[in-house]
Amino acid sequence: MDGERRVVSTTLPVDLRRTLAPLRHGHRDPAHVLTVDGAIWRATRLTTGPVTIRLAPLTPTAVQVAAWGLGAAQALEAAPALLGELDDASTFDPPPGPVRDAYRRSSAVRLTRSDRVLEALVPAILEQRVITRTAHDAWRWLLLRHGEPAPGPGPAGMRVPPTAQAWADVPVWDFHLAGVDPRRARAVVAAARLAHRLEEATALGTVETTRRLLLVPGVGQWTAAETTQRALGDADAVPLGDYHLPGQVGWALTGERTDDAGMLALLAPYRPHRWRVVRHLLLTGMARVPRRGPRLTIEDHRRR
């Protein structure tokens, strides 16, 4: 198996699968594949070109990384960030209670940083106000239609996400066939047309990146937070306007459901680690609320 490779040693144990899970959009994501040997294959597009990356755990603190394609060298350089090495939890010391318990049980899950804003933003837009399965199906359909074959010897059918120009050129009928309504389709195209300004903001930090994201028509606080979590490893990005999250956080911390304002009040003592708190509560099941209400209905925009 050719390709450039290196072993990345991490300062702390890392749960590879769950650390990278936010970058996977459904079990059939053609850009993110888990194989039976425990490896993770990712197809992405870096500034130097498309690349396929294989990450395989060797020990709790060592991961073998191999890469193929024009972006291979850049991918190896960026691998530590992908594994959470830029995730600084040194000031996170929650008091005894559910947050500390959750963190202790899942401390090997780090906050990944992909540094690919558009690749984080497009799926976040697709996830707006629809059930997750619908968004994942749309992502898969669009990548199979408009992505390109992943370089190297990866699993069959892997695709590199489209370029910004390719996203901007997706015809309206292809969004329709993917089950994406016109409002979300327009937001994807607008984001693609502003991709250069969004990508360059990663070097300026989460505040500036968030500010620029919120200038994109169709992108609000929820979408911006979901994007900075994945692209920048933002430990404090709380997605507001989520259908389930306030109730989950309220249940985990107080045993009662709450709304966005209540959630922010509960999380305020944990700044600048509010998303870290939420992530670990969700990972450990502490935020699982008993189901009493109706499930969201799957909308099929292709029949309209």
UniProtKB/TrEMBL annotation:
GO terms for molecular function: alkylated DNA binding; DNA-3-methyladenine glycosylase activity; DNA-7-methylguanine glycosylase activity. It comes from the Bacteria. Signal peptide: none annotated. Keywords: DNA damage, DNA repair. GO terms for cellular component: cytoplasm; protein-DNA complex. The keyword DNA repair applies. This is 3-methyladenine DNA glycosylase. One of its GO terms (biological process) is DNA alkylation repair.
